[in-house]
């Protein structure tokens, strides 16, 4: 019997490419043996509801088409369910960090073929209070910029929009008093930002967490200590080259679970979306989802 797939897509993502490609994508999936129906998201949180609904209705495969924001919602809709069907990813958004981390091709035809090959890999999922993430959880004044960028601007300018917004914010960078408690380490000091990574591809910084793995049952914690503007720019430049790991301003360790608290109001950023505020407990759910990937492990993000 043919497998049934539910394709959840964001009609506005990636300069609306998904809307234009939909007939071809559906045809390719059908020819490949996946009976596919669609759900076009209509607003914030809708993809999460659609993913949970697809599981309740017994679909065999769920496909998320869009950027990291759509994927974040789909995963939040799936993570609490007892039965979690394999997940296919069509990276047609402005930012597709997670697809890049898994080597899922950016070209839609290759990405569809990958789903049809039906080879899956188990991946860890991060949990923050009652929300979930697959790429990154972060906080501090710098991380707030990602969800301040209007989505229209994101679509038009892509990564550039983030950097423009970031440069605008630099003069307002301020340290925040934070406490981190895990089995491995206790840290209490003023920090510029913290990033807790599940994968090695974060915001276009592919060398930020060079040895992070999606299936090691661990999260990589990066804490950037208080520094001045010149130091901050120097550290970001070295992070682009992957040369930040031994910087005295950078604290790095791996953990399964960490509590983060602050006397201040601190927003959380989960996979580039607003993820609530501190305090929080961040933990890892090992091997929690099955994602379609290239069987050879050599597929590149192209």
From TrEMBL:
<feature type="domain" description="DAGKc">
    <location>
        <begin position="1"/>
        <end position="132"/>
    </location>
</feature>
<comment type="similarity">
    <text>Belongs to the diacylglycerol/lipid kinase family.</text>
</comment>
<protein>
    <submittedName>
        <fullName>Diacylglycerol kinase</fullName>
        <ecNumber>2.7.1.107</ecNumber>
    </submittedName>
</protein>
<keyword id="KW-1208">Phospholipid metabolism</keyword>
<dbReference type="InterPro" id="IPR005218">
    <property type="entry name" value="Diacylglycerol/lipid_kinase"/>
</dbReference>
<keyword id="KW-0808">Transferase</keyword>
<dbReference type="Pfam" id="PF00781">
    <property type="entry name" value="DAGK_cat"/>
</dbReference>
<dbReference type="InterPro" id="IPR050187">
    <property type="entry name" value="Lipid_Phosphate_FormReg"/>
</dbReference>
<keyword id="KW-0460">Magnesium</keyword>
<keyword id="KW-0067">ATP-binding</keyword>
<dbReference type="Pfam" id="PF19279">
    <property type="entry name" value="YegS_C"/>
</dbReference>
<keyword id="KW-0547">Nucleotide-binding</keyword>
<keyword id="KW-0443">Lipid metabolism</keyword>
<keyword id="KW-0594">Phospholipid biosynthesis</keyword>
<keyword id="KW-0444">Lipid biosynthesis</keyword>
<keyword id="KW-0418">Kinase</keyword>
<dbReference type="InterPro" id="IPR016064">
    <property type="entry name" value="NAD/diacylglycerol_kinase_sf"/>
</dbReference>
<dbReference type="InterPro" id="IPR001206">
    <property type="entry name" value="Diacylglycerol_kinase_cat_dom"/>
</dbReference>
<keyword id="KW-0479">Metal-binding</keyword>
<dbReference type="InterPro" id="IPR017438">
    <property type="entry name" value="ATP-NAD_kinase_N"/>
</dbReference>
<dbReference type="InterPro" id="IPR045540">
    <property type="entry name" value="YegS/DAGK_C"/>
</dbReference>
<dbReference type="GO" id="GO:0004143">
    <property type="term" value="F:ATP-dependent diacylglycerol kinase activity"/>
</dbReference>
